[in-house]
Amino acid sequence: MTPSLLSLPARSLGLAAADARALTVSLESGGNRWRVTWATPAGQVVASTAAITGEIWSKVAPVSVTTPGALSAEINLPVGGFASVAHPRGRVAVRTGRRVIGIRPEFPGAGLIVSRSQAEGWVDLAFSDDPPDTEVLAAALGISGDNLLAAYLVKENGGEINCRVLHYYLAGERAESTAWHQLPDYPLKPGVAAVMAGVHHGVLIAAGGANFPDQPPWENGVKRTYDEIFALLPNDSTWRSAGRLATPRAYAAVVSIPNGVLALGGENATGVFNDALLFQWDGKQVVVTAAPALPVAVASPVAAVLAGKVYLAGGYEPGPPRISGKGFFCLDLENLSAGWQRLPTWPGPARALGVMAALDGAIYLISGLELKVGADGQPQTVYLNDAYRYRPSSGWEKLPDLPWSVLAAPSPAPVTTTPARVFIFGGVDGRQVGKAPRDKRVPEDIIYFDVARHEWCLWPERWPEPVVCTPPVPMNGAWVFVSGETKAGNRTTAVPVWRPNLL
After folding, report:
1. Region 480-486 average pLDDT
2. pTM metric for this prediction
């Protein structure tokens, strides 16, 4: 188990100039109130004060003399460090976790992080609840006993700069995460990406998938697609062989429905499929039957189930040329004979390898890759960080952009209803493509869309087994991740289970 970090509420004190010299944190006479000073966009130095707990701040007022700042010397700081202060249990610093192009992202991808120096190096304790990847320009620290206050300058998306503060109590203990446990390893070594996985009658079913069994693709390795079907029964210690597909298949959209596991589209070395398969556990093996075929052939689409209907979006069209599609379709599980119905598409670009979720009467469509043909006739790829929500009664609306693209993150995405959140695990950040070394794993950050706050937030626990191209399987209030791709050309046989500790 790994410790959870604390997500600290950030409070905005007012607009600021990008002037680190005017940013200070100090204690007023008597040592029972914080005082923060900063420069406004007009260049005026102002201040605000609050009790040591940092909860209620006074009205901003001009000051004529600034208090000497708490910015540390540039020694003994973690990477990305802004400031540090001494503490009996180890020096404390604030740093940024904002992602840097060309360097593999590391958890937590927060704008401001509180860290402590220990024998093993710098250990992260907490982070600000600003939107992930927030750009922090400068920070200053103050300390009184176990009370730590950070004041920092944040650059907003619109270009404005704000002065914010957060309070952290250093004597608090970090809780150990109990969210994760492991199921038996997947039997198909070295693991597969884009497996078709779901649950029926309490039995975990997984079929197909693809990998590079001999060499990675950049060394002329050949991708192999599989036809094996496996099942894991409750309380079993190993997976069992449960049948075979009529033909190898991977990169389908997969959803669990009351009547079985539905796989939609997909592809193998011979082409892209427009059919649909239904996997059912009959007590001895997995029976595969045909389900209503799709109107188009697609690979790497996304799907989710809402109110007895299956919704499917995007995917790669067969080509040539190979491009992303913009189809949006619906299948009523109570009226299969009507087949798939075409619905109005979302207002953004076409996409494949996106993420879909169903929550609170709505479908969410998130990120993905737009693959198109440019004006010069050459293929163009655009890593998308947009997001949309579809309500059958009112249509599409655009949501706030994600802090980074999450291409091929597990889909359909896990959700919680109380509070209402859509969770995005890892995914490919397009800013890192072609720059991060191939031996680096996919990101460990988990972000979520908080429906009530209407914004993206960073989850305070890292993902210990990050993968892309796998469908999370909802089982007994948890989500199971069957195999998947850990880094370019590599797979894993791990089968982790996530049961969130709701915060």
Report:
1. 97
2. 0.94
Q: How far is CA 53 from CA 9, 74, 124, 146, in A?
A: 12, 28, 21, 10
Please determine, for residue 132, whether its predicted confidence score (pLDDT) is greater than 90. Answer: yes
> What are 372's strand-pairing partners?
380
- How would DSSP label each residue in 422-452? EEEE--B-GGGTTTS-TTSPPP--EEEEETT
**Run of H or E residues at 463:** none
Structure tokens that stand for 378 in this block = 């050459």
pLDDT beyond 90 at 74: no
Question: What region does 76 belong to: left with phi over 0, alpha with psi -120 to 50, or beta?
Answer: left
Task: List, edge to edge, every strand of the sheet that includes 355-359.
Answer: 355-359, 362-373, 379-391, 395-398
Percent of the chain as helix, strand, coil, to the nearest 5: 0, 45, 50
Residue with tokens 């959870």: 4
Could you tell me which residues come within 8 angstroms of residue 351 by beta carbon, excluding any fewer than 6 positions away? 313, 314, 324, 326, 367, 368, 369, 370, 384
pLDDT tens digits along 393-421: 999 999 999 999 999 999 999 999 999 99
Sheet harboring 420-425: ordered strands across?
A: 415-417, 420-425, 446-450, 455-458
Domains detected in the chain: 6-169 (no CATH), 180-498 (2.120.10.80)
Q: How many CA atoms lie within 13 A of 244 on its CB side?
A: 6
- Which residues have a Cβ under 8 Å from the Cβ of 294 and sit 6 or more positions away? 264, 265, 274, 275, 276, 312, 329, 340
Backbone phi and psi for residue 431, each to the nearest 5 degrees, phi listed first: -70, -20
